[in-house]
Amino acid sequence: MARREVPDEVEAIRRGIEQCLSATDQDGKVISNAKYGVYAFYDYDGEPIYVGQTMERLRVRIRRHLTNQRTDAVAMNVLDPFEVAEIEMWPFFELEDRQRTTEEVKNTLNAAEYTVFNEVLGKSSFSAVLNEKPITSSNMIGLPQSFRKRIIPDELYELRKHPDIRIARRANTIARLAQVISERSVSKGLRHTLVVQAQRLERLAANRLAEFFDEPDDSDLDESND
């Protein structure tokens, strides 16, 4: 029997991820090939939902989050890859200088992640992201030029953005995260993530309900036709 290919929707999103990870900077360097860097994920409302850093190449780390190579954040139901609509990357090519010590690299990445974290919090209407682990406090530093791109193709974007689909998905994520918390000894950060997810679900559901108050009820239409 011939091996079945992945669904068209999955394949289309994978292509979108690869297009993002193949983008080049003004010098022609592939941004995601940077061994050291910081990244952020955004949802369909442009809300920042996750910030991370890597010392193993941006493309490798981002793929692990968004494809079948699971990370702790995905496995613990902190981050749902379905929610990720856009990626932003900050590459630190200069850190690949062999004269830099591991400690220097780590300190710079910590400072960069802390800077990005504070920047995206300023853009969040919740003043929060879904990171379950605290970002290492550091001095703020100047960041390299970032690159941000949507990974969901046009033909799928409106469908996946539909609030009813996102409400169902988010509620399921919350249920699975709550189950993890109920079965293990977990950090305060993971419980905070649960609260943030609940706030995000409440906002989405409330906005969806508000849309119906702007429309006449069927009963109102029936009365108008009498």
Per-chain topology:
Layout: H1 8-21, E1 37-42, E2 48-54, H2 58-66, H3 72-75, E3 86-91, H4 102-123, E4 147-150, H5 154-161, H6 163-183, H7 188-213, H8 218-224
Antiparallel strand pairs: 1-2, 1-3, 3-4
Helix pairs in contact: 6-7
Give a verbal description of the structure.
A hairpin with a 5-residue loop joins strand 1 (37-42) and strand 2 (48-54). The chain is 49% helix and 10% strand. The chain is α+β, with helices and mostly antiparallel strands and 226 residues long. It has a 4-stranded antiparallel beta sheet with strand order 2-1-3-4, with helices on both faces. The protein has helices at residues 8-21, 58-66, 72-75, 102-123, 154-161, 163-183, 188-213, 218-224, and strands at residues 37-42, 48-54, 86-91, 147-150. The model has no long low-confidence stretch (mean pLDDT 90). It is globular and about 70 Å long. The protein contains 8 helices and 4 strands, in the order αββααβαβαααα.
Radius of gyration: 20 Å
Strand order of the largest sheet: 2-1-3-4
* Number of alpha- plus pi-helical segments: 8
- The low-confidence runs, each spanning 5 or more residues with pLDDT under 50, are none
The profile of the biggest β sheet is: 4 strands, antiparallel
Please state roughly what percent of the residues sit in beta strands, choosing from under 5%, 5-15%, 15-25%, 25-35%, 35-45% or over 45%: 5-15%
From N to C, what is the helix and strand string? Answer: HEEHHEHEHHHH
Class of secondary structure makeup: alpha+beta
User: What share of the residues lie within helices?
Assistant: 40-55%
Please tell me what the overall shape is: globular
Task: Calculate the terminal CA-CA distance, rounded to whole Å.
Answer: 62 Å
Overall pLDDT, averaged? Answer: 90
User: Number of DSSP strands?
Assistant: 4
What is the subunit organization of this protein? Answer: single chain
